[in-house]
User: What shape does this take?
Amino acid sequence: MDMIKTKSPGESETIKTEVVCPNDTNPMGILQGGRLVAWMDIAAAVCAQTHAGKICVTVSIDRVDFKIPAKIGDIITIKAVITRSFKTSLEIHVQSYARKVKESVNKLISDAFFRFVALDDKGKPTTVPGLVPDVSPPKK
Ligand SMILES: CC(C)(COP(=O)(O)OP(=O)(O)OC[C@H]1O[C@@H](n2cnc3c(N)ncnc32)[C@H](O)[C@@H]1OP(=O)(O)O)[C@@H](O)C(=O)NCCC(=O)NCCS
Assistant: This one.
């Protein structure tokens, strides 16, 4: 039986940072979509496993839109946050941002919802902690 019954999103929020290198791009120097989705999947997996405290595997990724191209040298910040907890599965919202080194603006380039399933030691789906809201400190 799980000792921890519920956790808040802040306990598993995950930030992953990358720099777009030539090997990540197409011949025009634009970040490949598949490479970005792979980075998003890793950030989401860390988030899911931190919430579950168990190995989690990706079972689905909903529609992924690529809104703005990221280019060689851009700094990519990927934020993964748990949005729903079911019986053995978790929904993770992943947002990706790109920033030029000489600019301070992070632009949203992609976002998607990932679904993960927690597995026990035999590779079977197993229960995950529930989700409770983060409690904000009182405003002064
Ligand atoms: C994860 C896996 C063990 C689940 O097995 P399963 O027989 O589908 O298990 P269940 O039918 O009991 O479903 C388990 C949970 O996953 C959810 N689920 C399964 N497939 C899903 C899908 N395609 N989309 C969303 N949720 C899904 C179910 O709703 C259920 O959620 P709940 O327990 O929170 O209600 C199996 O699908 C698997 O091994 N998939 C491959 C995972 C993988 O290799 N990922 C890497 C990608 S290459």
Summary: The chain has a mean pLDDT of 95. The longest helix spans residues 33-52. The helical segments are 33-52.
